[in-house]
Amino acid sequence: MNNDIKFEEINKNIKRLLQIQDFTTLQTTILGIAFALTIFGISGLIYDILPIYKLISATLLLFLIPMLFFILVSIFSNNWEVKLDFFARAILLVLTICISLILLLIIYEVLIGFSYPFEDTPILFISWTLIASLITILLFFKIVNPLYRKRFDEIYIHELRGEPVKGFVGYIDKLIEKRMPRIAFSLFVGTFLTLFFGFFETTSNGEVRSYGVFLPWLKYSVSSTINTFDYPNFVINMFIFAFIVYIVITAWDYYKSRKK
What we know:
- There is one protein chain.
- The chain is mainly α.
- The chain has one domain (2-157, 173-259).
- The protein has eight helices and four strands.
- It has a four-stranded antiparallel β-sheet with strand order 1-2-3-4.
- Strand 3 (218-221) and strand 4 form a beta hairpin.
- The radius of gyration is 22 Å and the shape is globular.
- The N and C termini lie far apart (50 Å).
- The model has no long low-confidence stretch (mean pLDDT 78).
């Protein structure tokens, strides 16, 4: 009986080690893909190219900062639950990018097939990105996340924490476990709020129409069908919205704790 228990424990440890190895390989692969997409996206914004490629570049950059943030937290956390949860969020954004590009290419092919000109407009750009995000979220939580948890079941087990690590490393661990999920949620909401408010035209001087709140991040010239995607302004807006959401969540948690 004892031999069977020991044999089962050895099998679990081997399975755990294999899953850790696979997870580390997957982390490295996704991180490499993220940096490659960054280079491609920035190149697409620098050079004057067709509207379809301009939209592809902008889509890649939309989700870049949250994706890299989630991957880096996953790499540096010492808690396997945190590592796996944040990496799952990074996978969610990778899927969002893939589905967004697939939908964009389908729209492009349909318009070309019916001999309609493909024009880059704020409604097109923001609508299909939000629709793709909704499809991805449903797909992720219904199919991908259960399979992901099953694939890494041995390292997804809740860890029994011993005495907390002291010093700077302990502070980083506490920061990651307590604050990072709230920051991650704020970044998600901030990104989608920035996209949504991109529907609203903020300035128009006759030749250039600008969209976005607080700073305009989509600009269209009357004489061109290609948008000017102002990535720094998009990032600033995203952080402003994320900060507001973070403050609201923190204040609400503080209010609930005071009522108890």
